[in-house]
Task: inverse folding
């Protein structure tokens, strides 16, 4: 048993899409979330820059005495998971790509054509293809980078014509060419537009890396006998810029109840 908080982080608001699943599944766990909203998106940046940012955030979380770090970001999971594990060997660190690939391997029909949409860095890393193919060599895996999604989502441009056109721009040809039946949202920002995607392509079966992060946390805590017995303090949500979409998401997650969440600004460069 371990009553210390779990640390989560993402480049921005995307990782917050995992939090309601974690709260529901593990109500006794206390969460400290860091969203690097001032420097999002990470997707178009170099691996060195992403490593530098991730190290700062992991350090911040470690200083808050977290018992585990969850990289609620595919881009960081694809580029920095092993690096962060080497820097912090004494703390469990989990990413979102392996848990999501495991679900793909369990859910997809034999020979299915699986699409993975993600940031440019995640697609370039080939991490999803490698992990999925290692588990299910029969699946066809095709990836598409959708770099405009994250900046639009961080701006709160979600349920409108600009987003619908952007979805069609990236997905029309991709889904048609490969006859995709199962679509992996390989970026934790994308569940925020999954309703829009399904409205345009209702036949798709969607697998979300955000939901799988919550399952992976539960599994790992159980395996290590580190589940919390009670939560006595509020969850903490920290951002490098308290943007309106970040605050709106926290409000939604905590259902407007102030006693559930404390919100802070923190500048990692100071
Ligand atoms: N949520 C991050 C991910 O899962 C978004 C990356 C970005 O900031 O571009 O990849």
Result:
């Amino acid at each position: 048993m371990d009553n210390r908080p779990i640390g989560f982080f993402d480049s921005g608001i995307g990782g917050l899409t995992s939090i309601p699943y974690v709260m529901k599944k593990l109500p006794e766990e206390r969460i400290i979330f860091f969203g690097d909203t001032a420097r999002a998106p990470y997707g178009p940046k170099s691996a060195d820059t992403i490593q530098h940012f991730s190290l700062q955030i992991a350090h911040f979380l470690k200083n808050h005495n977290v018992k585990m770090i969850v990289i609620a970001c595919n881009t960081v999971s694809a580029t920095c998971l092993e690096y962060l594990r080497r820097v912090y060997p004494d703390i469990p660190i989990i990413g979102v790509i392996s848990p999501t690939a495991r679900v793909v391997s369990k859910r997809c029909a034999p020979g299915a054509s699986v699409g993975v949409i993600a940031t440019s860095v995640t697609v370039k890393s080939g991490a999803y293809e490698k992990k999925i193919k290692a588990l299910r060599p029969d699946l066809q895996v095709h990836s598409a980078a959708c770099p405009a999604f994250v900046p639009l989502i961080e701006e709160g441009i979600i349920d409108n014509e600009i987003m619908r056109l952007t979805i069609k721009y990236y997905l029309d040809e991709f889904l048609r060419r490969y006859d995709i039946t199962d679509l992996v949202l390989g970026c934790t920002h994308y569940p925020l537009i999954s309703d829009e995607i399904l409205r345009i392509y209702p036949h798709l079966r969607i697998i979300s890396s955000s939901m799988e992060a919550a399952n992976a946390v539960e599994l790992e805590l159980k395996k290590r006998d580190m589940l919390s017995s009670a939560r006595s303090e509020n969850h903490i949500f920290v951002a490098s810029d308290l943007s309106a979409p970040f605050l709106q998401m926290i409000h939604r997650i905590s259902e407007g109840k102030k006693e559930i969440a404390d919100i802070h600004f923190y500048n990692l460069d100071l």
Remarks:
- The longest helix spans residues 161-178.
- The longest strand covers residues 113-118.
